[in-house]
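Hi R.,

Quick one: here's the Mitochondrial glutamate carrier 2 sequence you asked about.
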Amino acid sequence: MGDKKVSLPAKLINGGVAGLVGVTCVFPIDLAKTRLQNQQGIQVYKGMFDCLAKTVRSEGYFGCYRGAAVNLTLVTPEKAIKLAANDVFRQKLSKDGHLPLWGEVLAGCGAGTCQVVVTTPMEMLKIQLQDAGRLAAQRPVSAAAQAAAPGPAPSLVAPPPQAQSAPPQRPSATGITVQLLKTRGLAGLYRGAGATLMRDVPFSMIYFPLFANLNALGRDSAGNQADTQAQAPFWQSFVAGCSAGSVAAVAVTPLDVIKTRLQTLQKGAGEDTYRGVVDCTRRIMEREGPAAFLKGATCRALVIAPLFGIAQVVYFLGVGETVLGIFG
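And here's the predicted structure, written out as tokens:
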């Protein structure tokens, strides 16, 4: 960074390691976010802590990590692309060691755009696995509500015990991928790509400039900005990453709700399906009100803040340079 040229392979390794560490730490909160955002009619969970408690009670501790394998597999290239692309764009747009605000925003825009090629299929698979537990928990609640309702039984009432089939098998990432490729082709894995772009590009445009400026606070103003970032202590990178991540995460939460709803394939009883971003936005507004666009905002902030705080610390540790030095 700055006068010290860091190779692209080192940037990719740094980003990948950063993503693995961050996701491992915050994945249960991300699962709670997905389940809260997908709730429409029947409210299975009252909030983040209620969701996590019920998940542990019904699915065990490792139920909080449902879908983590997909996330951990694909977060390496995703975070590598995001962080490395931002650095590359910043270097290309810098002149005489100075990068204006518009250049920081443009670099973030480029980073957010590049990552979508990996982010979309990763989130598509992760959401199905994370939400399976919510749908399973919703069934007895739905059956109880129907049984308590006055009048004739509705047509969707569960069959009598002797006629009930065995509990549905939990989905797997491989099974979902194969089914999507068979029925919808490669486009099936990229369902919601437009909504993902709408979320990730503004996020990166907010996050990276804000992080760079927070990370540069108190550093030697005589040096160029890239050198200033490299010299920042770990705690400052962590605090800057957490702060910038929280602000950006909350700012784009409405877009994240839309993306999550569009990418969820299996719907619960009485839940809407959507034809696109505009249709999803209109239906949420009409049926659930504007507050629905902030579902999971706290969870999202609690996920993104430490995720990017940890990511920036690991990234600035220069793991990639060390690895390449050992094996190169």
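The domain at 8-139+172-327 is CATH 1.50.40.10 (Mitochondrial carrier fold).

Cheers,
M.
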